[in-house]
């Protein structure tokens, strides 16, 4: 997944005069804290495990940055000056073009300069690199900028400015590997980095599928008393890519703190709670999202009705979805009809659920709906009805996962009837490559073992 990201045009962001940088290092606040876990009632074992994973990697990233900056401290930065002749000629050229948009003419005159020392050469090259960047000639710009950094002759302030410019150009040309390399060099030799640099690094790591590093860099990019929205979006997205939904939820809650009435953020929270099957919070944030302007959609209303159903509020589940159909937000479709059947089944309206599923089977010839009926009767321990329906389902002419599921239900049925030989015969109809094979074997073996334990072994 590619994130939309605003990158300042490299040519416009690289000024001829070195940009002023704050010498005070920004300290990013921790994104994930025990207080947040408690505040959002996310202090359950799986959430804490994800937080500890995040905290461990945050420390690793801090250690990495510390190691990098310690390396940079070992450089003995020299002090050099332009030779008198080159300095005089350069000043004359700068005065000539300082207020004119004549980069090409400026560049041409610079190329005519004859450097007397290595410092003259490097200094002219770094200016040429910036000029070519302003002309959007990025390959030539990178050529001169990189040449100027082949030694530490430029001095620290100019040197790190050039490194940042190189990284920005590589990012603009989507050479993420080189952009990453130069941003970390920038951190090494400057000794710290502004939040914007970590923001860019988070984006780069994300594009390279380095999601843990993306989340860590995004955390460091956060600034106190700032909305930090892009950094939180990055963290949320990175944790989602890693399947760490509770860490995503922490980022989403922090995001919502900045805009408590944002329908978008409330909608995101409902969807994230859906991923961890937290039905009470799905209901809470879905209803809040509606209150603050989120549009009701087929998907949103199905989600809400499902959450009501699994939280035992069956009348609300049915009325929510039936109202959705009445308002034609939930259109007539086989999926919506199946959902209505599911809601009736959950509510204990077995006959109505079967009627809905049978109608679906009649119109689609999808044998999965017969499996749904058979599984429903099996759960309600109506074994006679289960047998009738599953025999109908096994008339499926195609050997596919739907039919494999039918054999799974049949094996369970035989096992519950203590007919273990028939249960194993049904199991053998499922290919070992099917996920249903191991599931069915485990269920049948479990039923048999439980029955033996209950009845005891006769002597």
Give the distance, in angstroms, between the N- and C-terminal Cα atoms. Answer: 64 Å
> Tell me, what's the shape?
elongated
| Sequence stretches where pLDDT stays below 50 over 5 or more residues | 1-32
Query: Main β-sheet, in a few words?
Result: none
Structural class: mainly alpha
Which strand-content bin applies to the residues?
under 5%
Which bin fits the share of residues in helices? 55-70%
- Strand segment tally: 0
Q: Helix count, per DSSP?
A: 24
Overall mean pLDDT stands at 89
- Rg result: 33 Å
Elements, N to C (H/E)? HHHHHHHHHHHHHHHHHHHHHHHH
Features:
mainly alpha; elongated
What can you tell me about this protein's structure?
Helix 13 runs antiparallel to helix 14 (263-275). The chain contains 24 helices and no strands. The chain has helices at 10-13, 34-39, 45-72, 84-97, 103-111, 118-134, 138-148, 156-172, 176-190, 195-207, 211-221, 229-241, 245-258, 263-275, 279-291, 298-310, 314-326, 334-346, 350-364, 368-379, 383-393, 401-416, 420-427, 435-455. Among the domains are: 314-366, no CATH class; 367-459. The protein is mainly alpha-helical and 459 residues long. The two termini are 64 Å apart. Helix content is 70%, strand content 0%.
Strand and helix layout:
Layout: H1 10-13, H2 34-39, H3 45-72, H4 84-97, H5 103-111, H6 118-134, H7 138-148, H8 156-172, H9 176-190, H10 195-207, H11 211-221, H12 229-241, H13 245-258, H14 263-275, H15 279-291, H16 298-310, H17 314-326, H18 334-346, H19 350-364, H20 368-379, H21 383-393, H22 401-416, H23 420-427, H24 435-455
């Amino acid at each position: 997944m590619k994130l939309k990201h605003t990158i300042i045009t490299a040519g416009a962001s690289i000024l001829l005069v070195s940009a002023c940088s704050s010498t005070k290092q920004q300290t990013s606040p921790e994104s994930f804290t025990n207080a947040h876990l408690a505040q959002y009632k996310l202090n359950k074992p799986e959430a804490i495990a994800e937080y500890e994973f995040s905290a461990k990697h945050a420390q690793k990233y801090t250690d990495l940055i510390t190691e990098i900056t310690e390396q940079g401290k070992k450089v003995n930065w020299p002090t050099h000056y332009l030779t008198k002749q080159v300095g005089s000629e350069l000043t004359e050229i700068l005065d000539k073009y300082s207020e004119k948009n004549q980069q090409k003419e400026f560049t041409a005159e610079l190329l005519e300069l004859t450097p007397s020392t290595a410092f003259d050469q490097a200094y002219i090259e770094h200016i040429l690199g910036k000029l070519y960047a302003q002309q959007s000639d990025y390959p030539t710009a990178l050529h001169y900028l990189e040449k100027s950094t082949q030694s530490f002759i430029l001095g620290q302030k100019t040197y790190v400015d050039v490194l940042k410019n190189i990284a920005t150009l590589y990012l603009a040309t989507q050479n993420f590997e080189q952009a990453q390399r130069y941003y970390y060099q920038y951190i090494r030799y400057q000794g710290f980095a502004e939040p914007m640099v970590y923001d860019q690094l988070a984006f780069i790591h994300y594009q390279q599928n380095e999601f843990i590093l993306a989340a860590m860099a995004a955390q460091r990019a956060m600034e106190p008393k700032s909305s930090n929205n892009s950094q939180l979006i990055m963290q949320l997205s990175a944790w989602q890519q890693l399947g760490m939904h509770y860490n995503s939820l922490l980022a989403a809650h922090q995001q919502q703190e900045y805009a408590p009435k944002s329908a978008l953020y409330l909608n995101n929270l409902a969807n994230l709670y859906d991923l961890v099957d937290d039905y009470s919070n799905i209901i809470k944030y879905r209803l809040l999202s509606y209150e603050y302007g989120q549009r009701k959609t087929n998907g949103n209303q199905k989600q809400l009705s499902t959450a009501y159903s699994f939280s035992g509020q069956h009348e609300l589940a049915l009325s929510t979805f039936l109202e959705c159909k009445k308002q034609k937000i939930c259109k007539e479709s086989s999926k919506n009809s199946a959902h209505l059947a599911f809601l009736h089944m959950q509510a204990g309206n077995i006959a109505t659920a079967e009627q809905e599923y049978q109608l679906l089977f009649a119109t689609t010839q999808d044998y999965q709906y017969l499996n749904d009926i058979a599984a429903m009767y099996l759960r309600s321990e109506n074994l006679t009805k289960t047998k009738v329906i599953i025999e109908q389902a096994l008339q499926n002419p195609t050997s596919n996962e739907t039919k494999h599921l039918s054999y799974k239900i049949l094996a369970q049925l035989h096992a519950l009837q203590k007919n273990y030989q028939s249960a194993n015969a049904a199991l053998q109809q499922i290919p070992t490559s099917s996920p249903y094979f191991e599931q069915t074997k485990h269920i049948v073996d479990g039923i048999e073992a439980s029955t033996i334990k209950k009845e005891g072994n006769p002597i």
